[in-house]
Amino acid sequence: MAGAGLGLRLHDVLLDTEHHDAFDHWWEYAAENYITWDDDQPISMDLYYDPVVDEHLRSPVGLIAPTWYLAPQRREVAETAWRLGAEAMGLLGDGDIALFDPRDGLQLAWFTGEFADEQTKRKLWDACDTLFEPTLDQDSGEFTFGFGLNETHPRGQFNARVMAGWVCQPGAWTRIFQTPNLQKYSQPCVEDVDFPRVAMSQAHWSEGSLHLAVDPCNGATNGTRTTMSVRRLPVDGEWILKSSDQTSMSCDVVGGKTRVELIADGSVFTLTAVDDTVGP
Question: Which of 178, 263, 161 minimizes the C-alpha distance to 216?
Fold first, then answer.
């Protein structure tokens, strides 16, 4: 239900509904019946409850496991759960981190970005760097972690979790569900990117301009040209695409749409209307 609550929360924010009440009612019951408290601090949650014999299988692991899902909904409980795991692994304090198996660090790496400062996060990733077996495929440009599993294909869920933790800044995951950026649904957007030959490293609308940057997948595509579509531009007419070296190209926008050509080398391009009345 903790995971389902996130979907209900997003539905409420986007469509002005009140479905998240279902999670709130569930949480009230779960907090009383399935969580063990020490004063006002949670210390464990049931991994399993057998109603036939009225047996609770309590463990701190049961509290730690749903941390990512609880963070935007019951942050104080989620942060307490993260601290339980972080302290047990030696992440907090001046000692060394007790990581010996890549899977020991999976959840810690997943959760830490949401709660920890940069120094703590760096300490964790310094310990995980070799343990997680980082690998860059030079041909495809794909970066993955192998986790020492010796498998043909990297574990998708494992990689998704730890990379979510890597990119996450404190509170960023919670803000998606509490104060999401809804303006992006009406702002200009990019389509028809020639992925995976190239990948967007920057695409954001700011102060009346669209800022774009494309990275190559490998050395063979570095510096090559690539085209893509832009739509939802606020005005038709002439727009100017300017590169980081100040080279300019004119683009004709019709019905809010145009095509642009960029260089796949990570350099930044800016698309701006000739009509300087376009707002942010």
Answer: 263
The answer to whether residues 73 and 5 touch, using CB atoms and an 8 Å cutoff, is yes
CA dihedral 36, 37, 38, 43 (to 10 degrees): 60
Residue 141 has pLDDT above 90, yes or no: no
Residues spanned by CATH 2.60.40 within the chain? 183-273
3-state secondary structure of 90: coil
pLDDT-derived band at 276 (thresholds 50, 70, 90) equals: low
183-273: what fold?
Immunoglobulin-like (2.60.40)
What is the arithmetic mean of pLDDT over 52-60? Answer: 94
Task: Give, in degrees to the nearest 5, the angle at Cα 59 between 53 and 60.
Answer: 155
Q: Strands, DSSP E only, in the chain?
A: 35-38, 41-50, 55-59, 134-136, 143-145, 189-191, 198-206, 209-216, 225-231, 237-242, 248-253, 258-263, 268-273
pLDDT at 280 over 80: no
Q: 214 pLDDT exceeds 90? A: yes
pLDDT average, residue stretch 145-171: 93
Between the alpha carbon of residue 165 and those of residues 12, 15, 178, the distances in Å are 25, 28, 19
CA angle 195, 14, 193 (to 5 degrees): 10
